[in-house]
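Task 17 of the worksheet. Students: predict the tertiary structure of the chain below and write it out as structure tokens. Keep your answer in the requested format; marks are given for formatting as well as content.
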Amino acid sequence: MPDQPKENIFLFVPNLIGYGRIILALVAFYYMPYDPIIGSICYIISGMLDAVDGYAARALNQSSRVGAMLDQLTDRVGTCGLLMVLCMLYPRWAILFQISTALDITSHWIHFYSSTSLLKSTSHKTVDYGSSILKLYYTSRPLLFFMCLGNETCYTMLYLCYFTPGPYLLPFLEVGLFDLLFFVSLPVAIAKAFCSWLQLKGAMSAIADVDVEERKQLKKKE
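Model answer:
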């Protein structure tokens, strides 16, 4: 039988969507400091496409390690870019945004490394380190979507609040829509940060366990 043509992973539909997300994020970063309309629209669309590329990967049977890594990096860089803008707009609270950035990047990178490289899992979402919270977080797609949506809503609304509180929907309530959405989504963002901490702690413990086991094997050979 003739050899089948080699698949080009980089041209898989979900990966093409991922490239689009990157372009939209870059456009958002450019406009965010002075044009909240274009900046927020591009950022929100880029975030919404995160759900689309996952659906496309499953529907078209085009899941790949390249796509998984691209998705992770786009998520992290997107949130990191928005937090950098928030540091510019709210310098007094920059330390909180810096801590949030560091926790988000380190927890996801170490978790991805420990689950796929050391524990040989096919997906980082199947490793929970024995935590019932992380198990529920990663196995329940509605919950995962809700947590990610709440987290992004919190930061995006805080960004918009710098320019305007948003429309006042209730005359007797002197709170703009953007202010209201920020305060409603803030607990979700805090809960997601806690999940990131559990993820970081579990991944570090898993890596340490691998170190201990490897040292045992080395001592047996001596």
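Marker's comment: The first helix runs from residue 13 to 31. The chain has a mean pLDDT of 89.
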